[in-house]
Design a protein that fits this description.
Layout (H helix, E strand, L loop, with lengths): L4 H23 L4 E7 L3 H17 L2 E7 L5 H13 L5 E4 L9 H7 L11 H8 L8 H12 L8 E5 L6 H10 L3 E5 L6 H5 L4 E4 L17 E4 L3 E2 L6 E2 L4 H4 L5 E2 L6 H22 L2
The protein binds NADPH dihydro-nicotinamide-adenine-dinucleotide phosphate.
Length: about 280
């Protein structure tokens, strides 16, 4: 089974669009998302364009504030402060990475936690680990939705997450733990990675290396979620961290790249924005 993230993200966005129409009737305005893009890195420009397109589809007002790569940290922090204070702004997203002269952590920490739709603010991260209600990070949230959509019963399963970044590996491990999986987190220092990955009933791969996970590293019948986004060195096309062609014959279900996790990340960003708006207008 190929787990179709495109299809699921479409149905989530359709549901959100209906919710936005109802919210506008009730509260007299629609959610408002501001994306801040510094510089013109083609990858970042393409991500931001995708987010703006999805927001428009859902009925979320959105603006991308483009700033030159020479912007100072102070100037960027001033923009964030202004957006924090603007009652008409519900979601703030600063596209990462930022130029080297800007302290990313400082910028993220300056965003008001209730408008932090990426859920990277230290308070949202802490809330996730302390099991407090909070905005959930988009990619990990999308992965859990994909598993449920594929009918996977997560509780009690052996889950292996390869990658331990703050934005994917660690939070998805935490969410899998919340779903009562038995979770192992592997990384670049893991000894005999194949032995670890072969234990997985659910294998989540978030490395950023083209086809690092080969079919022989997958337990027959496992569910495989490929988060990686790489350029195929042979064809120049997008590809994941898993050798999809071979792995699809071993796994019981697998996400493709593109069309798996990527669209879900964007759909969850839209959901987070609508939820942030709802929370603000209802004062809950
Ligand atoms: P990072 O570079 O922050 O983290 C990569 C992780 O992979 C690290 O924990 C690293 O280990 C581990 N790693 C690197 N090499 C190996 C190896 N040989 N064996 C085992 N583990 C290894 O990446 P991100 O988590 O930000 O992203 C991972 C991938 O997912 C990228 O391709 C990125 O583009 C993609 N991505 C996709 C998204 C989507 O929506 N589809 C969203 C976010 C990311 P260590 O900690 O030891 O260095």
């Amino acid at each position: 089974m190929i787990i179709n993230g495109k299809e699921l993200s479409k149905s989530i966005k359709e549901g959100l669009a209906e919710r936005v129409v109802a919210l506008e009737k009730e509260h007299g305005r629609t959610p408002n998302l501001i994306v801040v893009l510094v510089g013109d890195d083609p990858g970042s420009v393409s991500y931001v364009t995708g987010k703006a397109k999805a927001a428009t589809e859902v009925g979320i007002r959105n603006t991308t504030l483009r700033r030159d790569v020479s912007i100072t940290q102070e100037e960027l922090l001033d923009i964030i402060a202004e957006l924090n204070n603007d009652a008409d702004v519900d979601g703030i997203l600063v596209q990462l990475p930022l130029p080297k002269h800007i302290d990313e952590q400082k910028v993220i920490a300056a965003i008001s936690p209730e408008k932090d739709v990426d859920a990277f603010h230290p308070l949202n991260v802490a809330s996730l680990w302390l099991k407090q209600p909070c905005i959930l990070p988009c990619t990990p949230k999308g992965i859990i939705k994909l598993l449920k959509f594929a009918g996977v019963d997560i509780a009690g399963k052996e889950a292996v997450v390869v990658g331990r970044s703050n934005i994917v590996g660690q939070p998805v491990a935490k969410l899998l733990l919340e779903e009562n999986a038995t979770v192992t987190v592997a990384h670049s220092k893991t000894v005999n990675l194949a032995e670890v990955t072969r234990r997985a009933d659910i294998l989540v791969v978030a490395i950023g290396r083209e086809r690092l996970v080969t079919a022989d590293m997958i337990k027959p019948g496992a569910v495989v979620i490929d988060v990686g986004v790489n350029r195929d060195s042979r064809t120049g096309k997008l590809c994941g961290d898993v050798d999809f062609e071979a792995a699809q014959h071993v796994a019981s279900a697998i996400t493709p790249v593109p069309g798996g996790v990527g669209p879900m990340t964007i759909a969850c960003l839209m959901e987070n924005t609508v939820e942030a708006f709802e929370k603000r207008v209802t004062n809950k």
